[in-house]
Amino acid sequence: MTEKFPAHRFSIAPMLDWTDRHCRYFHRQLTRQSLLYTEMVTTGAIIHGKGDYLAYSQEEQPVALQLGGSDPAALAQCAKLAEERGYNEVNLNVGCPSDRVQNGRFGACLMGEAQLVADCIKAMRDVVAIPVTVKTRIGIDDQDSYEFLCDFIRKVSEEGGCETFIIHARKAWLSGLSPKENREIPPLDYERVYQLKRDFPHLTMSLNGGVKSLAEAKVHLQHLDGVMVGREAYQNPGMLAHVDGELFGSTQPVADTVAVVRAMYPYIERELAAGTYLGHVTRHMLGLFQGIPGARQWRRYLSENAHKAGAGVDVVEQALSLVADKIVVNA
């Protein structure tokens, strides 16, 4: 019997404008075990917005909602709505360094307000039974000592009741660097996250930042409870086909990428009937055949044709024909 691992052992990071419901549905075709995250959704959008910011497909499960906000009452209201809608987890964003997010008083700037973060977590935990987690950095600006990080974790866990932390192993500069630069310029410090787990062994700790392969993920899993991968999983989604077998011990066959594309057709048809443009779904699928002959033609054909009026599944099938015969089906 294979060992049963929790979904947070491997997760796909919340990425603004990327991990929408179409992206998550696609990723779920490649990995059945991983935990998927929504884009960050603000409490204001959920409470006051005109759209349904909590919409997702049941097939995406297990899926977690990432919230942006710093008002305990509003966060509690949104957490309750998320639980009612069937989300598996609510995660508080304490890691995004963008100016827009700071102006709303949420994201990485909250690292400097550990008591407020603890209050926010407690307010959510008081009204839901699902896990309430925190995604954060190892520091902000000049507050980047290990002691600062430990003090933050201690207060949020002891006073807020947070039991699970996802640590992006870079600090964030709140001014002077763009969000993109904040993902690349501050150096990664994996050892600091490992040390955090050693010092807080009772807490669940996952690592995020710079992970490019499942081989790297396995190394981190020798020290931590989970690994979260962002851009690599999005730009090279084919790697996700191997996650269940390599990290979760699944004995199911590795997902055949051509079959994965065709498994998307019923979903695409449903979405087209509801008024979604084909390109809104297929943009997340462009990197699927990375490294395979024909991948460039696949990307180009979809990019040039998916946004045309009336574009449907036939466009995807035509793009697939440019690459499918060059693929050796995974054993």
TrEMBL record:
Sites annotated Interacts with tRNA: 93, 180, 183, 296, 299
An example Gene Ontology molecular-function term: flavin adenine dinucleotide binding
InterPro entries with a match to the protein in the record: Aldolase_TIM, DUS-like_FMN-bd, DUS_fam, DusA, tRNA_hU_synthase_CS
Keywords attached to this entry: Flavoprotein, FMN, NADP, Nucleotide-binding, Oxidoreductase, RNA-binding, tRNA processing, tRNA-binding
Gene3D superfamilies the UniProt entry points to: 1.20.120.1460, Aldolase class I (3.20.20.70)
Catalytic reactions on record: 5,6-dihydrouridine(20a) in tRNA + NAD(+) = uridine(20a) in tRNA + NADH + H(+); 5,6-dihydrouridine(20) in tRNA + NADP(+) = uridine(20) in tRNA + NADPH + H(+); 5,6-dihydrouridine(20) in tRNA + NAD(+) = uridine(20) in tRNA + NADH + H(+); 5,6-dihydrouridine(20a) in tRNA + NADP(+) = uridine(20a) in tRNA + NADPH + H(+)
Requisite cofactors: FMN
Record-annotated active site: 96 (proton donor)
Positions of FMN binding: 14-16, 66, 135, 168, 208-210, 230-231
Domain DUS-like FMN-binding: 12-318
Function description: Catalyzes the synthesis of 5,6-dihydrouridine (D), a modified base found in the D-loop of most tRNAs, via the reduction of the C5-C6 double bond in target uridines. Specifically modifies U20 and U20a in tRNAs.
NCBIfam families: PRK11815.1, yjbN
Protein name stated in the entry: tRNA-dihydrouridine(20/20a) synthase
Species whose genome carries this gene: Pantoea coffeiphila
UniProt gene name: dusA
